[in-house]
Write a structure and sequence with these properties.
- The protein is 71% helix and 0% strand.
- It is mainly alpha-helical.
- Helix 3 (74-105) crosses helix 7, helix 4 (111-120) packs across helix 7 (157-168) and helix 8 packs across helix 9 (185-196).
- The radius of gyration is 24 Å and the shape is globular.
- The termini are far apart.
Length: 282
């Protein structure tokens, strides 16, 4: 009895301590972002290297954003990144789910070996396959095209494994009911598995979008033409220009972060344990 009373007394203190720690961690993560936004909003005549540093701009101005889109091809970089990331997400959701379904629900010889080989590829760093992949893109004539950025991201071992585990949790009764209704294997995949795995599909879409949107190394290797550059390469161009303006660089970084933040905030409520309820609705 005394022990339970002591635990009850300690719980508010522990909860308060946990809240303080979380607030400190959140503050540590937010300060660089706030500093970035503040730098992008400082006026042309304002010193951004004051001591002590000023977090809030004394003369807020959108001049850096205006120059970002008028003096540099930022709209082109945004368009290229949106095309590459959008098609990569669509291809991943399609191909990974099609590959995961038989690995999760069908019985065939060598299924375990196929799954083991797929998962083993996760351990291979991209730098190992980068040169063979580059030579392949050159041979098929896709170098200096956006397709060279999309095709390597069209399917991932992580996505196949994630959706395979999600499909394993779908009740067999749902498949049997769909089969009685006359669904083919593709019909079961579309009408049962896809709705039931909604949360994992959204999670995979976010991972692929963020990874493709922020990828720098592969576009740097495969692209030479500036009109095909994505946002990371465009920001690198801003940062390496002859007259470096940190306000312009900060504005470009804010513009590149905004779509990811909007995507995460918009889809966060869908990342819930989905289970079979969505499939029953369908």
């Amino acid at each position: 009895m005394a022990a339970s009373t002591t635990a009850a007394r300690r719980s508010p203190l522990a909860a308060g301590l946990q809240l303080v720690i979380l607030l400190l961690v959140a503050l540590a993560m937010l300060v660089p972002l706030l500093w970035l936004v503040s730098t992008s909003l400082k006026g042309p005549a304002e010193d951004i290297f004051t001591s002590p540093p000023a977090l809030l701009p004394a003369e807020p101005s959108l001049e850096a954003y205006r120059r970002l889109f008028s003096d540099s091809p930022m709209a082109t970089y945004l368009r290229n990144s949106a095309i590459v990331s959008g098609l990569a997400v669509f291809a991943n959701l399609t191909f990974c789910s099609l590959a995961a379904y038989p690995l999760a629900r069908m019985r065939f010889n060598g299924r375990g070996l196929v799954l083991a080989l797929v998962v083993a590829t996760i351990l291979i760093p991209f730098q190992v396959v980068m040169i063979p992949l580059y030579l392949l893109m050159v041979q098929i004539g896709l170098r200096n095209t956006l397709w060279a950025l999309i095709i390597p991201q069209a399917a991932t071992a992580f996505g196949i494994f994630l959706l395979r585990q999600s499909f394993l949790g779908v009740p067999v009764e749902l498949e049997e009911a769909a089969r009685i209704d006359g669904c083919s294997a593709i019909g079961e995949w579309w009408n049962v598995m896809i709705p039931a795995a909604r949360a994992d599909l959204i999670t995979l879409a976010m991972f692929v979008f963020i990874g493709t949107w922020s990828d720098f190394l592969w576009p740097l290797v495969i692209l030479d033409e500036p009109e095909l550059y994505t946002l990371p390469l465009g920001l690198q161009q801003l940062a390496s220009s002859f007259s470096l303006d940190w306000r312009l660089v900060a504005a470009g970084a804010v513009v590149s972060i905004l779509p990811v933040m909007v995507l995460f905030i918009g889809l966060q409520r869908y990342i819930l344990p989905s289970a079979s309820g969505d499939a029953v609705k369908g």
